Fold these 4 entries.
Entry 1:
Amino acid sequence: MRSPTGEEIRTMAAAAWETIPEALRRHVRNVVIQVVDFPDDETLEEMGCESQFDLLGLYRGISLDRKSVFDSGAEPDLVFLYRRPLLDYWCETGEPLDAIVRHVLIHEIGHHFGLSDEDMEAIEARD
C-alpha cells in the first residue's frame, strides 16, 4: 500500500469543497488551498507544536469577521493541508482519508469566517 500524494489529497480537498454549502462557498472563492508535507518550523513554533505531526491543517489570513476595506491589497487567504500529519492520523485512526481531509478543510475554512467549533461541527453534519 502506498501513501497518497499531495495531488491526491488536493483532489480529495476539491471534492470536499463541493460538499460545503454554497452559502458559505461563495464567500471563500479566493481562499487558496495548498497541500505541503509538513508545516514549517516557524509555524510549528507559533502554534506551540511539539512535533511536526501535531498540526493537520492551518488557515492563514484575515478572517471575514476581522477584515476591512484596508485589507484589500493583503496576501490571499490560504488553507494549508499537511500531507504527512494527515496520513499519520489516517493510519492511527483508520478513518477514511477523504473524511479527515474534509473535516480539516471545513475547520480551517471556518476560521476564515471566524466560526466557532460548534458552528463548524454543524456544517460537517450537513452531509
Entry 2:
Amino acid sequence: MSTLAWTAELVLNQPELDHTHEEFVELLNRYGDMLDRGEDALPAFKALLAHTEAHFAMEERWMAATGFEPENCHSSQHAMVLNVMREVVRYAEDLGDREPLGIVRTELSQWFPGHAEMMDAALVYTMEQRGFDPKTGVCRDPIPAPAAAGEPVSACGSSSCGH
C-alpha cells in the first residue's frame, strides 16, 4: 500500500524541486511499507528526515536568494515539521516509544500535498518572477521590488497569512 502517490498535482514544473519532492514521496512510501510489514521503520524514517532536512535547506536558500523575509510562514512550517520529525526519532531512540512513527506517517502524507501546492508553488512562482536559476544561484532581479519598497515576500502563498 502506498502512503502517498506521486501525482501530476504535485508537479510544480521546477525540475530540481520536482525531483526532490518525488524523492520525498519515495522515501515516505519506503518508510510506510516497512511499517506495513511490521519491520523496524526507524532507519527508513531517519533517511526520510535526513532528506527532508536537505530538502528544506535547499528551499530556504532559494527563499533567501529571491527576497523572502527571514521569518516567514513557509520557513516556519519547515521548522515545525522538522521539529516533529526529530521528536519522533527522540521518542523512538530515547524513550523506546515507536507509536509516533505510525502517527507521523499519516500526518506527513496529509500535510505534504497542501504544502507543495500552496507554499512551494508560491516559491516557484517567485523564483520565476525574479529570474532565479537554482543551478547557479543567480537571480536576474536580486533586489525584488517589494523588498526594495520595504515589503519583503512573506512566502506563504495564502491571503490568510498574518505575515
Entry 3:
Amino acid sequence: MSIRVMLVDDHLIVLRGLKFFLNTQTDINVVGEVENGKVALEKIEDLQPDVILMDLMMPVMDGVEATKEILKRYPESKIVVLTSYSDQDHVIPALQAGAAGYQLKDVDPDELVKAIRTAHQGEKLLHPKATSLLLSEMSHDQKKKEAAATATFTLTKREKDVLYQITLGKSNKEISAALYITEKTVKTHVSNLLSKLEVHDRTQAAIYAMKHDMFAEKA
C-alpha cells in the first residue's frame, strides 16, 4: 500500500515540485496540496493522509499552530515539517507541537523520502541541525534542573523555615512571631533565599517551593 501524503505550503512552485518528485516514488501518493494550516485542517478528513508535509511560515495559520490543532483532533496523524528555518525559535516549537520529523528545504530528496517513510512507521527523523538544537535545549533544561536542585540544597535550615512560612502566606511580622526571630532577621533571610533561588519576589519563591515539592512532608 502506498503512503498517502498531503502537502501544506503557501508557495505554488514548491507544491508542484514536491508533488512531481514524490509521485515518482512507487510507495508514495500525493493526495492533496493546500496553501495553509487552516485549509489543511478542513481537508484532512476528506483526504485522510498518512503523512502531512508541513511548511512553517504561512498566512492564516502557520505550521506550528496547524500541527497542534491537527494532532489535537487527529492524534494519529504524522506531520513532517519541511521549512527553510533551522533556528531554535522554529525548531523547538515545532517539535514541542508534536512534529514527527523536521527537515530543511535544501535536504537531499532521498532524505526527504526517508523522513516520510520513517514518520509513517511511527518514528522520528530530524535534520542534523534540528537534532543539534534539540540536544542543546535538552542540555539547557537539565542544567536548569540541576541549578534548581543546587539552589534548594544550599538554603540553610532557617532559610527553609522562612520559605515555608512564605508558602503559608505569612508576612515578615507573622514569620518573626512564628520563628521567634526579629523582623530584621526575617528580611535578611528572605533576601538571601530570593538570591539563592534566583527569583524576584516572595510570590515567585512560594511558587518555586511548591513546584519542587520542598515541603511535601509538611503538607
Entry 4:
Amino acid sequence: MRKIYIVFILLFGIIIVLDASLEVKYPFSNKATSDEIPVQKAGFISSFDTKVDSAEDDLFTQVKPDTLSWKLLGVIKYIKKPDKDYPDGVMFPIINSDLKAKSKKKIVMSGFIIPIDNVSYALSKNVFASCFFCGQAGPETIMGIKFKGATPKLKTDQYVTMEGTFRYNDNDVNDWIYHIENAVIVKGGK
C-alpha cells in the first residue's frame, strides 16, 4: 500500500515540476509597431485585423482593457448627505481610489443580465432572484449598461462578459453607481 502512495507522490511531483518549467507563448509579441496593436483574439472571431483605422469605431482600441471584479466594486463606503428630493438626506457612495483611476477607461466585466424595462438592461453580480432589486444585495452589485450600437435581445440571468468604458456616479441618487458604456458582449452573447 505504501508503494502506491509513493508512486502517486512521485507522479504528482513530476507533474508540478513539468508544469512550472513550461513557458507560456502568447499569440502576440510585446513589441508592436505604431500601426499594430497587440490584441488577443476572442474565440468566436474567425478573422481579425489588428490595424486600427479609427479608435472610436473599433472594438479593440490601443489600450488593453482592465478586468474589473465585483469584489473591487464592493469596496465602497457611503456618507449621508442632504438632497433636494430627499429632505432627510440620502446615502451617497464614496468611490475608492482604484475605481476612480479606472474611470473613462476600457474595462472587461462579467455578470448576469437583469432586465430593467423592455429596452434596457443592467449587469448584476447576482442572478435576478437575489439581485439588488430583491433586497438581497446593495447597489454596488449592479452596473448600468449602455450598448455600443443597437441594444441586443438578452435573457434574464444570462451570464455574459462585456467590454466597454467604465464610469462611476457619486452624485446623482437617481442613477446607478457604476456604468459600462459603449458596451459590447465578448462572451456569452447567444
